[in-house]
Amino acid sequence: MPLPPLSKKDFETLSDFRYQLRRFLRFSEAATHRHGITHLQYQLLLHVRGFPDREWATVGELAERLQSHHHGVVSLISRCEKLGLVQRQVGRNDRREVEVHLTPTGNDVLNALVGQHRDELLRLQGIFHVPGPDERDANKQAGER
Q1: What is the mean pLDDT of the chain?
Q2: 39, 86, 104, 137: which one has the fewest Cβ atoms less than 10 Å from its Cβ?
Q3: Largest Cα span, the chain
């Protein structure tokens, strides 16, 4: 069964979601800039530390997490390495793979920023809401009354 067309309220909700998302991203850009790194460098550090079940990630895994091309992530890692934030190591199981690990400096920068991001997300809790089909149907029926 096809979904009904979007209502004015749906457009308002989606618009507000994009607005709040952009506000969060702008907050992140400003916070990372104050710490001397870019928002992409912060995301790289976050994905290395936040990779499930270990404290490192491969270049390919980071490319997936960042939704970026492999060669772009390699350049990003090189820039982070020059800043002393990460270090590369030969893969443990496959010597063709490259593991990316945070340095103590990278951990310090990440710890300073992640708390700020968590606090901002908590402040925005409940704002990122997109109505599901059931909720949209209920709103449509209420409008017909």
Answers
A1: 88
A2: 104
A3: 67
